[in-house]
């Protein structure tokens, strides 16, 4: 099947579900928290949950460090981290109040807002996106211009794909589903895999493969990553809660990137999908220059110019409708120091 048609159908179904949630919320429908409160819960602090957009990995390291090192406790918050998966419904979880915060990517924030979901970024831990394509060193592929004739395992609906297609880099490339594994590369030098530069390159080398990473950010597609988001409603109604959660998460990221071992132990326990201690350590090391690309970068910072560029790119790619998203509404830096 044509990958563009396949992507469209998958995202039509997904966004129909999101739109239904939005209509329910706007109609006054509410959902109760799934967890039950006990008599001593007040002593533990205010219950808060954060929904991950993927299986627990280094891109969630700051939240895990804040949890295990007591930084959330210091803010009088009793925090639950909810692991994600391939199809995590981040926007519905927030809109229905099952989670107050989530970690996702900047391009997803734009997609959520294009569908009418009032999702707002409050901290961007990673400035340079770790998205890459992973190819074998013996594939003959030196750069994106050499991909023709390859097979690419990728997740339909990810917005870096139309970016690559529009620029012609996927011409002659066969796209097949991605199953959160590099196994397809083991016996096929003509197989490429979507990846994060903070994990899969080492996983491949641990299995005896010499690989090359093609960074999508080098082409100009560079949404913020590991973005902490919440709802506009929570910002308006509970700004102090947002302030405390952002402060603890920001501190968690700062400390995690300096000393990740404690949080990595918690991540490894929560992740049952082939992660290893060595890969998590490697990932934290690779994450540092992505989070601090310059000497003056402040952890979590965001700029209107970066959001404007992203929104303009997504309009150009016809991923969102014209005038459906205003860049200045995608984020707020009011909770950052």
Automatic annotation (TrEMBL):
Query: Its GO biological process terms?
Result: thiamine biosynthetic process
Residue intervals of the SsuA/THI5-like domain: 59-263
- Which SUPFAM superfamilies does the record match to this protein? Periplasmic binding protein-like II (SSF53850)
User: PANTHER family annotated for this entry?
Assistant: 4-AMINO-5-HYDROXYMETHYL-2-METHYLPYRIMIDINE PHOSPHATE SYNTHASE THI11-RELATED, THIAMINE BIOSYNTHESIS PROTEIN HI_0357-RELATED
- According to UniProt, the name of this protein is NMT1/THI5 like protein
């Amino acid at each position: 099947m044509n990958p563009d048609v396949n992507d469209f159908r998958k995202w039509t179904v997904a966004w129909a579900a999101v739109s239904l949630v939005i209509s329910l919320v706007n109609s006054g429908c509410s959902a109760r928290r799934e967890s039950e409160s006990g008599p001593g819960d007040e002593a533990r602090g205010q219950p808060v949950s954060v929904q991950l957009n993927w299986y627990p990995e280094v891109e969630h390291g700051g939240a895990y460090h804040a949890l295990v090192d007591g930084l959330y406790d210091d803010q009088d918050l009793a925090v639950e981290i909810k692991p994600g998966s391939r199809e995590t419904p981040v926007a519905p979880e927030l809109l229905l109040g099952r989670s107050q915060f989530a970690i996702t990517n900047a391009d997803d924030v734009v997609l959520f807002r294009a569908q009418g979901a009032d999702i707002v970024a409050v901290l961007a831990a990673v400035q340079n996106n770790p998205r890459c394509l992973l190819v074998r060193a013996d594939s003959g592929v030196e750069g994106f211009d050499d991909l023709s004739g390859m097979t690419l395992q990728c997740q339909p609906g990810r917005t870096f794909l139309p970016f690559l297609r529009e620029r012609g880099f996927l011409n002659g490339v066969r796209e097949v589903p991605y199953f959160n594994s590099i196994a397809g590369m083991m016996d096929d030098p003509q197989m490429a895999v979507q990846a994060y530069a903070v994990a899969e390159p080492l996983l491949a080398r641990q299995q005896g493969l010499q690989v090359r990473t093609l960074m999508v950010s080098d082409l100009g597609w560079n949404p913020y990553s590991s973005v902490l988001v919440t709802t506009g409603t929570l910002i308006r109604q509970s700004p102090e809660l947002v302030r405390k959660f952002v402060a603890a998460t920001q501190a968690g990221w700062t400390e995690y990137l300096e000393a990740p071992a404690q949080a990595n132990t918690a991540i490894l326990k929560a992740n049952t999908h082939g992660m290893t201690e060595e890969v998590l350590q490697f990932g934290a090391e690779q994450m540092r220059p992505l989070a601090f690309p310059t000497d003056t970068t402040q952890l979590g910072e965001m700029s209107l110019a970066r959001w404007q560029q992203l929104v303009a790119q997504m309009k150009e790619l016809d991923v969102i409708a014209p005038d459906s998203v205003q860049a200045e509404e995608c984020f707020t830096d009011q909770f950052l120091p």
